[in-house]
Design a protein that fits this description.
first zn-finger domain of poly(adp-ribose) polymerase-1, 2 domains, three-stranded antiparallel β-sheet, 34% helix
Length: 175
């Protein structure tokens, strides 16, 4: 898929994040995506600031390719750095807030307040493919992902875990 930053040609496009009109002449961020109405691709437009909050990595790449001047670039850079701090990085571990999730590997329920590992997966919804989280028991995570450095990646990406939770996770991963 293609991401682009360009000057809005008209004032008819609406931002897919905030739903407000993108003014003519303003910089906008576009992502190419499949059309819900045909087999062709379409552009989903966002205000540059809205996209910086929601999709920091593609915006950063598009900014690197953009050759024009970006008004308020310092503000966009601040939004990108703050979005990076809150962005979800897979895989990560957390305590299950409910008992409704099922392990992708074994199919058994994950108990409420039990540790679980979240991995990115693609889900088809209404004919469109969306990325989202899928959950695993810690003991099922290594066989499911086949990742050798899983413990290190989980330690880096699991910011909300306490030290006791991290110790429990390390022990569960080795089982």
């Amino acid at each position: 898929m293609t991401e682009v930053i360009e000057v809005a040609k008209t004032g008819r496009a609406r931002c897919r994040t905030c739903r407000q009109t993108i003014d003519k002449g303003a910089l906008r961020f576009g992502e190419e995506q499949p059309s819900a109405f045909s087999d062709e691709m379409q552009m989903a437009w966002h205000h540059l600031a809205c996209a910086a909050r929601k999709r920091p990595a593609p915006v950063r790449e598009a900014l690197a390719r953009f050759e024009g001047e970006v008004p308020g670039r310092e503000e966009i850079e601040k939004l990108l750095s703050s979005a990076d701090e809150t962005a979800v990085a897979y895989p990560y571990a957390e305590r299950a807030p409910t008992g409704r999730s099922k392990c992708l590997h074994c199919g058994n329920p994950i108990a409420k307040d039990a540790l679980r590992v979240a991995v990115e997966r693609e889900v088809e919804v209404g004919g469109m493919t969306r990325a989202g989280a899928g959950y695993l028991h810690p003991g099922c995570a290594r066989p499911f992902t086949g990742t050798e450095d899983l413990a290190e990646r989980l330690a880096k990406n699991s910011k909300k875990l306490s030290d006791a939770d991290r110790d429990e996770l390390t022990q569960a991963l080795s089982e």
